[in-house]
Amino acid sequence: MFYQENFSYANQYHHGIVIAHGKLENLSLIRSPHLFIYGGVNDLLIYFAGIETIVKNFNKNNQNPHGKLYRRTRYRIYHCRKARDFIKIVNNQSVRNLWIFGHGNISNLFLDDGNLAYKIFDGTPDYLKKNFIAQLHCNNKEGHLSTYYLCENLERSWMTPGLHTPGYTRNEVKEILNNQEKFF
Question: Checking DSSP bridges between strand 157-158 and strand 95-101, what pairing results, if any?
């Protein structure tokens, strides 16, 4: 595994970093002339999209101006292959902030068992809604994104439209981490 995971945070508020693994045939919905890029390195590209930047940032101790150390930020990495895996994370009240990496479009997440339409979360009770969501996969097409259904406050969410490359997504992650006070 690429990153050290700490399962002791499972019952405490934490950031959920979702790595969604999807079959290549589900990617055909993108209909991009650049689709061949994703061919043999489908999952590998996701790991270059800034996950390690989040982990490094959350693992460091931060000092406030008075010299007091803040605690490290709690997080857990979740690997999702099936819709039920993602739904379980959404239903976990301890996951207060959600980072979604993988392949998809604005209203779907591509997984091994097909495309999970975010609209299935319409009517999600407030106690399951997240403080912050970063939808860090391609956001082309039309429809409602995950934050529309799952975020307490849309101003504390992140999504940029269009097709994404790992480098583009990595820059988005850096932008979010440089403005943490705005988001979480």
Answer: unpaired
User: Which CATH number is 124's domain given?
Assistant: 3.40.50
Residue 22 has a pLDDT of 78
Predicted confidence at residue 17, as pLDDT, reads 94
Q: Name the domain count of the chain.
A: 1
Q: Is this prediction's pTM over 0.85?
A: no
Query: What is the DSSP secondary-structure string of the chain?
Result: --S---GGGTTS-EEEEEEE---HHHHGGG--TTGGGGSTTHHHHHHTSSHHHHHHHHHS--B-TTSPBPPPPPEEEEEE-SHHHHHHHHT-TTEEEEEEESSEETTEEEETTEEEEGGGGTT--GGG-BSEEEEES-B-SSS--HHHHHBS-GGGEE---B---HHHHHHHHHHHHHTHHHH-
